[in-house]
Amino acid sequence: MHKRLISALLFSVIGLGALLVPTQAERNQVLYRDQVAVLMYHHIHDADTSTSTITSQLFRDQLQFLLSKGYHFISLQEFKQYMDGATVPDNAVLVTFDDGYESVYKNAYPILRELRIPAVNFMITDSLADPKSTYIPSMSAEELARMSRETNFMEVQCHTDGSHRKLPNGEAALVGRDTLDGRSETDAEYRTRISADANACANKLEPLQDLPVDTVAYPYGIINEEGADLFRRAGFNYGFTIIPQMATREADPMRIPRINAGSPWITPERLHTMLKRRTVSRPDAFAAVDLADAASRLGGTVVDDGSSILVRLGDRSLTGNVGSKLFTSGEGNVQLQEPIRREQSVLRINLPDLQKLLGREITYNRRSGYIYWREQPLIRQAQSETPSGP
């Protein structure tokens, strides 16, 4: 009996190990590179229902499922760096919210904070004057500022000031001609209206955070060439639409696509499938970099005696050989994907291997050659000062 019990326990442990292996493999799986899935949400509420409202539990389940599948969440600042030539982690995702509903602060923010997931709120700023007067209550200036103050990964950008509306003729206010005193506004009046709206939105948000306000999500995802140019002239460098595609750096920065994730029928599994189906084929995103130069920029050194290599970074020291994939340290072995090679007296290493060697995520801008540590999501204040959330 005792032997049978031991055998049963042994098989149970083996079976559990077999179940855990695929999960770890999934977390390490590269689903896509050098592109970003920008997710769009609106209302996170446990009682309200609509095609753009999901419960806090579904929101949490989506994020946790994506984390379990190896997705990496990035901030808007990292996305901007990517558009300017920098790398992003494999399976990169950016979370965005439109309209600035208070439900984001009360229900979504506690989850994002707990999971250390960055996000950007696109705010309709004319609601800041009286946030509770809207049909769905909006966030206040104090709530927006608090999220930015408490973390380094929550920020607010523009969803226009007073242009989230349809005109009498049914056109979106950003692209159509409004009616003034019974007549259609002139082209000059249209340009003045849109420019004033863009400036008003930025002016209201700039005091709420230290980051620049230079990004807009167009209401209804609708914009035309003239409207985009007016926002650009007002100091906006990025504009988001609702075109359901992956974002790549070849996209027009004033027409960046986003994928809707905020409808109640989008289960975690369905969202994962949607993202996989939208990935695009990309050339190799990781050019080999100069190992000695990269280590120096990150505060380390490389000693190369012609065959063996010593890499030092802080209290971390690793040794290996040119042409080898194996490096050793006091903490154990590091197995690289590709061997370090010498090209015209320069040691070359690909970016994923450099991250593995140094033990931290880094960002590399291929245009400037600048390399730096990837900023990690941080909490600046105590948990008790934030809404309790679901």
UniProtKB/TrEMBL annotation:
InterPro entries: Glyco_hydro/deAcase_b/a-brl, NODB_dom, Polysacch_Deacetylase. Residues 91-390 form the NodB homology domain. The keyword Signal applies. The keyword Transmembrane helix does not apply. It holds the Pfam family Polysacc_deac_1. PROSITE patterns: NODB. Its main location: secreted. This is Polysaccharide deacetylase family protein. It comes from Paenibacillus lutrae.
